[in-house]
Design a protein that fits this description.
Length: about 180
């Protein structure tokens, strides 16, 4: 094979003569002091408790609102590397709904780590046997995949029925968009 060579031409860049009046017409650059940002201590922020009724709610739309509150993105001092999220209690997880053909087509897959250990669970079966896990999996998929994401998912508490034992924390009802009726 023939080796190709390229010739590089160097062009000398002559500096333009400085005008004596040019320096006086341009104002000097102003150095600004850097903005001092004081980090907010996570202990200074008291997390709120919210309760959400999942009856008749769409799984994905409910999960996005819950994940946003777990991350703390609704707060004005949100920072992705700090844990400012709230606690969310979801009740009536067994009455959640899904749209389209997801009930029959969506599969939850995981591997046990052993040869031939691929496990599959269809959504309809997961809703019948483990309705709590379906909401937890949906919300966990919307949180960061890191150590802080694992800490955020601990603030999610899901119950299949309408009762919860967290009345002492005085949870506020979480404002959600009204349920849309499909024709």
């Amino acid at each position: 094979m023939a080796r190709s060579t390229t010739v590089r031409k160097t062009v000398s860049k002559a500096k333009a003569p400085a005008r004596p009046d040019a320096a006086s017409s341009v104002p000097p650059t102003v150095r600004r002091a850097p903005i001092q940002r004081t980090p907010i201590q996570t202990t200074a922020i008291e997390p709120k408790w919210y309760v959400v009724d999942a009856a008749g709610r769409t799984l994905g739309r409910l999960s996005t609102v819950v994940a946003t509150h777990l991350m703390g993105k609704q707060r004005p001092h949100y920072s992705p590397h700090q844990l400012f999220g709230d606690h969310v209690v979801v009740v009536n997880a067994d009455k959640i709904k899904v749209t389209g053909r997801k009930l029959n087509q969506k599969m939850y897959r995981w591997h046990t780590g052993y040869p031939g250990g691929l496990k599959e669970l269809p959504l309809w079966k997961a809703l019948a046997e483990h309705p709590i896990k379906v909401i937890e999996w949906a919300v966990q998929g919307m949180l960061p995949k890191s150590k802080i994401g694992k800490r955020m998912i601990r603030n999610l508490i899901v119950y299949a029925g309408p009762q919860h034992p967290h009345a002492a924390q005085r949870p506020e009802p979480l404002e959600l968009a009204p349920i849309r009726k499909s024709a």
